[in-house]
């Protein structure tokens, strides 16, 4: 057991180092110069001021030392929780900017990932056994899973927001409110959260439902199912076994899908003007704010790695074969 | 059958419960995040009463992050609502009017400024001459944007607590007036403890100003200002800002702004909303400054900027041919649906019409005429030798020019396509390209482009600003704010400097202007295209008496854009009336 997790942790640590390094390298190879961006912003009109201002901003952004030193500093500061200063939102520290946006993104991602996985599996399993449900749920699921996140988002915002006027189309909570502990405020949060959540949920839901339906059909045709049936086991029992077996690939799928879901959430946030990381990423790219970009990617990398690790643990819990395998290995 | 329906019901129930349960579960997560924000959580009430609150947008494109009036990029209203300037600029009378200052007088090379009595900072301390001196002297720090002030200002002296004397080495009247109304005064007693580096890097998150509003709260997607109990102008000028709260919504896209405006959840949108003409005509309670085309006031001039360091843009004949190949009318009507106006060939905004010398324009101006453009090219020796439909350079090499505008600026992208089509019809191979805004900034600053569109020649107190934008010398390796065409004309630059020193009412001012217009039109270092609008649309459901061209309505600039509050937009707030009911 400990060897299994030790190996896993080692792999994750290595991935982390590589990801963080790439994260540091890629923005630096992007065309563009953050210092120039600042100088353009302040539109220096005094020619004599350009050189001193350049040196000054280089030191603010830590660009005045050799590259290897910048890389080392990056790691040191990373462990101190310091992600540098944003160029686009100068002089705000990147960590502050991200911390303010992260709760919104997490509040969208976690429920939509978990619920769509759960509901998709349930409905898919049902569909495998009910022809009429199969005939309705399957086409709907195919349509949903093929829908781009933002397109569904735009449809929902237009239909339920602009035309029906049931849901708001922008913001994290009503523009009339200040953050506080009250039912009005919580209600407003939920109201603004619902549509972006729904569009994420629906697209992911379709994918899981199709996957589960196909897996169940496959499992029900497996030898062990036929054997159980021949032994006269009740259909209910057979289905339960099939469902459990089918869940495992779906769990792996969840780990693989995390990245896609995160990017989906980012696009959805832009559509609904939801104040999460999505809008920040877009603007950071357009403004060549590579400190902010680094910070956000770092957050995503850590998030995806942590989620994968959790899924590894869950895998051990739900699949007895893994445990047996590990005992055999030790 | 019975069993099936039971399953279905169970499934649907599970789904609904799941969604509901998740709604509950999520709230915890989201609120705990929001609860951590430094909002005045205990500040009772919570909601802003609709009839006391003005909702605006169109200024901020990212989370509010700085309230430092010294460094550009501050939150909407930092200068204007919180910090104030010594003078305001009145675009109707085209003169500066006293604001924090009571008066200012020139005597040879000195300017004596008297402050109004009874102005206090948000913390109750009085505004004094020391604050003005301190603010001006901040310009000695190189990283402060107005540091070039000190190349022609030599000393600032406090005469008494209400009087400051500025002594100039080179009295540039026009440039000085520009400084007076564009820069906010900061309180010395709070700022003097900050180091040089702090002054230009602090977010200044507790702004203490003299203005009518104070910081209330902000979040990722909004900035909220609250009316101060007493504001000096209420007593001194009988002005009272009407909204008790101003909530400025951060733009994510113009579509979102349009949605909010239509729903009546936004009162003033300063976004570019294509097709707004239909909404103004329809029954949506949406109004603009003019009820008919062009609907909007003009805010700045969109210019086609050729890089005059490259061939063939270094040839004036080529630039003139290019200018007459552009169908500006098609841009105004087709791309903008008439919400902008075609620019005068001089490029001077309509407020400067009095200074446009019509005889110069009729002699040297340009107009859309493809045949004339072709002829001009042929006369200048540009021929299509390889018969691909496009002229070659004088060296015989093919000419292919890229016209860059920022990706996502849909109106400019369309305009670039119109320009390219016009130029190609005349035989000039212009190809539109759409890089990121940042990459475009770099190309413009470093001078690595062929053609681009820029509109930084905006509304200001003096046409000097415009010609400074066109002709500024010397050319640097990096051009940050002016003369992106990198055009060297020493005579023009001398005239621009002369303009800076001439009072606007002097007869030479007009003569100098006419001479500059002549040089601009004959040499055409930049090609004026159209006047971009001061995008502004209001929903009259909750607030009325918006500025408009109609009689007996306010004439202030209806905008929340930074740098325009000090052009009198602040007065718009004193004129608004809550809708009855």
Automatic annotation (TrEMBL), chain A:
InterPro entries for this protein: MetI-like, MetI-like_sf
Record's keyword annotation contains RNA-binding: no
Record's subcellular location: Cell membrane; Membrane
UniProt keyword list: Membrane, Transmembrane, Transmembrane helix, Transport
Domain of life: Bacteria
Protein name: Peptide ABC transporter permease
CDD domains reported in the protein's UniProt record: TM_PBP2
UniProtKB/TrEMBL annotation, chain B:
All copies of domain Solute-binding protein family, residue ranges: 95-471
Extent of the signal sequence: 1-25
Domain of life: Bacteria
Protein keywords: Signal
Protein name: ABC transporter substrate-binding protein
Annotated organism of origin: Asanoa siamensis
Taxonomy of the source species: Bacteria, Bacillati, Actinomycetota, Actinomycetes, Micromonosporales
């Amino acid at each position: 057991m400990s060897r299994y997790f030790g190996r896993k942790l080692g792999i994750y640590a290595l991935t982390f180092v590589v990801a963080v390094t790439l994260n540091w390298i890629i923005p630096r190879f992007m065309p563009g110069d953050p210092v120039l961006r600042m100088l353009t912003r302040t539109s220096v009109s005094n020619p004599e001021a350009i050189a001193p201002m350049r040196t000054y901003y280089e030191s603010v952004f830590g660009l005045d030392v050799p590259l290897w030193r910048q890389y080392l500093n990056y790691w040191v500061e990373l462990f101190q929780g310091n992600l540098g200063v944003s160029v686009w939102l100068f002089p705000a520290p990147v960590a502050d900017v991200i911390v303010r946006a992260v709760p919104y993104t997490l509040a969208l991602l976690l429920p939509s990932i978990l619920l769509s996985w759960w509901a998709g599996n349930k409905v898919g399993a049902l569909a495998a056994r009910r022809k009429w449900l199969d005939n309705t749920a399957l086409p709907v699921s195919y349509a949903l899973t093929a829908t781009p996140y933002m397109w569904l988002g735009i449809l929902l915002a237009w239909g339920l927001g602009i035309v029906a006027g049931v849901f708001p189309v922008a913001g994290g909570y009503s523009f009339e409110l200040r953050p506080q502990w009250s039912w009005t405020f919580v209600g407003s949060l939920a109201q603004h959260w619902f549509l972006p959540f729904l569009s994420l949920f629906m697209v992911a839901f379709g994918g899981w439902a199709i996957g589960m339906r196909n897996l169940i059909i496959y499992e029900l045709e497996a030898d062990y199912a036929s054997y159980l049936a021949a032994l006269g086991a009740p259909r209910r029992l057979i289905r339960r076994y099939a469902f459990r077996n089918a869940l495992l690939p779906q769990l792996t799928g969840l780990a693989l899908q995390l990245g896609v879901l995160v990017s989906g959430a980012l696009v959805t946030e832009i559509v609904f003007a939801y104040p999460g990381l999505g809008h920040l990423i877009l603007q950071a790219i357009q403004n060549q704010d590579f400190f902010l970009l680094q910070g956000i990617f770092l957050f995503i990398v850590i998030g995806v790695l942590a989620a994968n690790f959790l899924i590894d643990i869950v895998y051990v819990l739900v699949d007895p074969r893994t445990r047996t395998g590990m005992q055999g290995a030790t | 059958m019975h069993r099936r329906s039971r399953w279905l019901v169970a499934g649907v129930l599970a789904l609904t419960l799941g969604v509901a349960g998740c709604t509950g579960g999520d709230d915890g997560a989201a609120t705990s995040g929001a609860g951590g924000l430094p909002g005045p959580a205990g500040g009772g009430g919570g909601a802003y009463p609709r009839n006391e609150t003005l909702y605006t947008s169109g200024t901020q494109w990212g989370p509010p992050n700085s309230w430092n009036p010294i460094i550009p990029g501050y939150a909407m209203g930092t200068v204007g609502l919180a910090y104030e300037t010594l003078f305001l600029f009145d675009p109707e009378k085209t003169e500066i009017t006293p604001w924090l200052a009571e008066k200012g007088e020139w005597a040879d090379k000195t300017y004596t400024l008297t402050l109004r009595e009874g102005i206090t900072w948000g913390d109750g301390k009085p505004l004094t001459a020391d604050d003005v001196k301190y603010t001006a002297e901040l310009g000695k720090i190189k990283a402060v944007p107005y540091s070039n002030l000190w190349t022609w200002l030599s000393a600032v002296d406090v005469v008494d607590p209400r009087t400051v004397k500025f002594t100039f080495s080179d009295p540039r009247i026009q440039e000085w007036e520009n400084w007076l109304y564009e820069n906010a005064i900061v309180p010395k007693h709070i700022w003097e403890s900050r180091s040089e580096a702090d002054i230009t890097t602090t977010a200044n998150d507790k702004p203490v100003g003299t203005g009518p509003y104070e910081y209330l709260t902000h979040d990722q997607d909004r900035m909220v200002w609250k009316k101060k109990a007493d504001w000096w102008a209420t007593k001194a000028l009988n002005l009272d800002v009407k909204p008790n709260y101003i909530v400025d919504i951060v733009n994510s896209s113009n579509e979102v702004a349009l949605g909010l405006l239509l729903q009546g959840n936004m009162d003033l949108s300063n976004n570019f909303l294509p097709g707004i003409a239909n909404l103004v005509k329809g029954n949506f309670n949406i109004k603009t400054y003019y009820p008919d085309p062009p609907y909007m006031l003009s805010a700045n001039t969109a210019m086609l900027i050729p890089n005059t360091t490259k061939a063939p843009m270094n040839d004036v004949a080529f630039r003139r041919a290019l200018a007459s190949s552009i169908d500006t009318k098609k841009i105004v009507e087709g791309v903008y649906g008439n919400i902008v106006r075609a620019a005068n060939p001089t490029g001077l905004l309509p407020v400067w019409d009095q200074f446009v010398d019509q005889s110069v324009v009729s002699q040297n101006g340009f107009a859309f005429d493809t045949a004339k453009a072709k002829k001009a090219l042929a006369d200048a020796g540009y021929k299509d030798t390889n018969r691909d439909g496009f002229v070659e350079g004088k060296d015989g090499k093919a000419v292919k020019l890229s016209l860059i505008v920022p990706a996502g600026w849909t109106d400019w992208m369309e305009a670039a396509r119109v320009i390219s089509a016009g130029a190609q019809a005349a035989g000039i191979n212009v190809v539109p390209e759409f890089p990121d805004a940042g990459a475009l900034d770099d190309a413009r600053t470093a001078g690595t482009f062929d053609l681009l569109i820029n509109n930084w020649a905006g509304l200001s107190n003096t046409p000097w600003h415009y010609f400074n934008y066109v002709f500024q010398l010397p050319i640097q390796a990096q051009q940050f704010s002016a003369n992106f065409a990198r055009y060297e004309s020493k005579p023009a630059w001398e005239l621009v400097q002369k303009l800076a020193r001439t009072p606007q009412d002097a007869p030479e001012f007009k003569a100098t202007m006419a001479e500059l217009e002549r040089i601009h039109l004959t040499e055409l270092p930049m090609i004026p295209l159209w006047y971009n609008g001061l995008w502004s649309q209001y929903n009259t459901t909750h607030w009325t008496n918006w500025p408009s061209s109609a009689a007996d309505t306010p004439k202030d600039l209806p905008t929340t854009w930074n740098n325009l509050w000090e052009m009198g937009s602040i007065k718009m707030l004193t004129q608004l009336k809550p809708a009855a009911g």
